[in-house]
Amino acid sequence: MPFYGGEELATVYDEALDEGFGLIASNIAEPSIMMGLMEGADRMDSDLLLQLSGGACKFAGDGDPVAGLKAMGTYIETIAERYDIGVFLNMDHQTDPEFIQQQIELDIPSSIMIDASHEPFEENVATSREVVEMVEDANSDILIEAELGQIKGVEDEIESEEAFYTDPEQAVEFVDRTGADLLAISVGTQHGVAKGKDLELRPDLAHDIRVALRDHGLDTPLVLHGSSGVQPDQLQEMLKHGICKVNKDTRYQYEYTRTAYDLYSEDPHAIVPPEGVEDARDTFFNETDWSPDKSVFDPRVAGRDIRARIADVHADLTTVSGSAGQTLFK
Ligand code: G3H
Ligand code: ZN
């Protein structure tokens, strides 16, 4: 069964560190994005790391994040069975200890990110450590990602107006004291719509963090958040410095809406009546000769286009990040 837990995910990160590639950690807001990602990853023989934020779980569960996680977990597991790649699930930007405890008890995710990076250092250490202990107490193999430094921009329910770059020596103390399995660092990327040309990226800092950790015997995989605007050459530079997980959400959100927009823009009158025809949707246009075109408005038509586009986008990203051809589960 290719929907795996933390133990198998740890082997992927070991391989990624050895080989110098990164997994594109891809947020899913609804099932068509998830299906497209699976198709793209399978096409490229790349293992796949999906991500659900708290907001995405609430959306899937119509306000109830636990219901959303259960529903999406079952959906992912069922569809993943068709593919010969490893499929993993990370819980992205988690802040609620009660919800985290439920995730551990349900044993659905492969990894969980605790995001306490907005807190002062000591509180961040304490909160992150608490989550590591929750996993240890449950004898669970779920991996824990914690963040040090702050990334600018908006991601789901998290918003930061300022960026604080991660300090290498503090990173060593943070990993040592929290026991986190992965470290998210701030090296100039930005959540949301960002342009690579405007980012003040610091691959040199990623290098210093990696070296400082290794000097202290810590081979911790690093995580790059806010990667949607990062260009291929910029990403490949970052991947030289121990970054094994590259988070993308905004890019897929855009591709989803843009693909539907392109379809409906081709012939708007397949959906809305032309000028002079009453927009009588409540009667389903009973009094007019015009009718909408089911071969366009059936949501599965846009859904299929969206899946195909997300698959292509993800396939390209696995080439850029080097995870193409690296699946451990074929
Ligand atoms: O945690 C998710 C990612 O950091 C999202 O970054 O807004 O650049 O896609 P993005
Ligand atoms: Zn993020």
Automatic annotation (TrEMBL):
Source taxon at top rank: Archaea
Gene3D superfamilies in UniProt: Aldolase class I
Pfam short name (any one): F_bP_aldolase
InterPro entries recorded: Aldolase_TIM, Class_II_FBP_aldolase, FBA_II, Fbpase2
GO molecular function, one term: zinc ion binding
Biological process per Gene Ontology, one example term: carbohydrate metabolic process
Transmembrane segments: none
Xref: PANTHER family: D-TAGATOSE-1,6-BISPHOSPHATE ALDOLASE, D-TAGATOSE-1,6-BISPHOSPHATE ALDOLASE SUBUNIT GATY-RELATED
The protein, known as: Fructose-bisphosphate aldolase, class II
Organism expressing this protein natively: Haloferax larsenii
